[in-house]
Design a protein that fits this description.
The protein has 73 residues and is mostly helical. The protein has a single domain (6-68), classed as Arc Repressor Mutant, subunit A (Orthogonal Bundle). Helix content is 52%, strand content 5%. It contains three helices and two strands. The chain has a two-stranded antiparallel sheet. Helix 1 (6-22) crosses helix 3 (40-52). Pfam families: LexA_DNA_bind. Residues 1-65 form the LexA repressor DNA-binding domain.
């Protein structure tokens, strides 16, 4: 299994907490505000990496379809 960077782990843990509380995933903007990562491009790159590593998945072109498939722990 590939080891996550500190940023990737932070984003994944933030996603886990957000989904546990709200029962739906955050938007890129919401995720950016929560993590303090100002660039939506950076958020996108991190989420694509997490998808490539098998931690998340989503339906392209559909909002709020992100699913956590593997936890950070």
């Amino acid at each position: 299994m590939r080891k996550l960077t500190t940023r990737q782990r932070e984003v994944l843990e933030t996603l886990e907490g957000y989904v546990a509380t709200n029962h739906y995933p955050p938007t890129y903007r919401e995720l950016s505000e929560i993590t303090g990562i100002p660039s939506s491009s950076t958020i996108s790159k991190i989420l694509h990496s997490l998808r490539d590593y098998g931690y998340v998945s989503w339906n392209e072109g559909q909002p709020r379809t992100l699913r956590i498939t593997k936890t950070a722990s």
